[in-house]
Amino acid sequence: MAQSFSSPIFNRFETALRQKNKKVTIPYWDSLLDNYMDNDPTPSESVVFTEEFLGNGKGIVRTGPFKFWKDVNNCTLQRSLNFNNSETLMTHNTIDTIKNDLSVHNMKQIIYNKDNNTHTLEGQHNIVHDWVGGMMSILDYSPRDPVFFLHHAYIDYIWTKFIQKQTAMNIEEEYEIVGDDIKRHHPNRTMDCFYWMTNADGLKARLASNVRYEDSPACPDCGHSKYLKCHKSLNRCVPGDKFTRAGIDGIHSALFTPMLFSLVYFTTSIMSI
Ligand SMILES: [Cu+2]
């Protein structure tokens, strides 16, 4: 289950980064916003995957800060955005439900479900792994792409909203065994690499309470991002000129339109132990 290790890992990871730079925080990539690029431009043209941010999204990463990045096995970072041509990312309704719908308030409603995993937080998280492709789509290799941390920070952000909802409803801390691997997911099992914590510890609300995330950009100001604008009828922040690009000259639309929306997602997480 994605979330049982995310909080402890991000806590430690951010603390380690701060030993180098006290001001650093882990940003999140709100990939949900990219759904509005489903026509032209498309999500795989997101500014996230340009030289300006994380580098190109198809093939060997040759641009941006991680160009020709080598992993521990000397393999070069590569991606395969939208490999199955679906341009499908997470589902707005599902994410909104997990965050806000009071009828969805127990862990078993949002964690792995072998009969219908698409609308769980786990399933939504999987979609983005597969959509980015390359190393991100392979379980054991996915953390070798820096996108992993931005994606998981967003999942952690949604998780934190869910925990806050539970807390407001006075719901006790709970733990559900995920899938059929009861031994591996037993609440009292010690976590891999975190021998001082059990699986259940990783899900405790107190961990979420140590995390603060800036809210995802919302209308009307959309975080004052130059990449987003508020689409009034949707009441969502969307790529800046998706709805006006017909009036933009060819060069501008071809080169810069994809950059107009995504960067917004990079908001801040602040964690403390
Ligand atoms: Cu993941």
Keywords:
273 residues, alpha+beta, di-copper center containing domain from catechol oxidase, 2 domains, 3-stranded antiparallel sheet, two-stranded antiparallel sheet, 7 helices, 28% helix, disordered C terminus, binds copper (II) ion
Describe the structure.
The strands form four sheets. This protein has a three-stranded antiparallel sheet. The chain has a two-stranded antiparallel sheet with strand order 2-3. A two-stranded antiparallel sheet has the order 4-5. The chain folds into two domains: 2-216, di-copper center containing domain from catechol oxidase (Orthogonal Bundle), CATH 1.10.1280.10; 218-264, no CATH class. The radius of gyration is 19 Å and the shape is globular. It contains seven helices and nine strands; from the N terminus they run αβββαααββααβββαβ. The two termini are 22 Å apart. The chain has 273 residues and is of the alpha+beta class. It has helices at 2-18, 92-100, 121-132, 147-168, 199-202, 205-209, 250-256, and strands at 27-28, 58-60, 78-80, 190-191, 194-198, 211-213, 228-231, 236-239, 267-271. The structure holds copper (II) ion. Copper (II) ion binds at residues 2, 125, 129, 142, 152. Copper (II) ion is lined by residues 2, 125, 129, 142, 152.
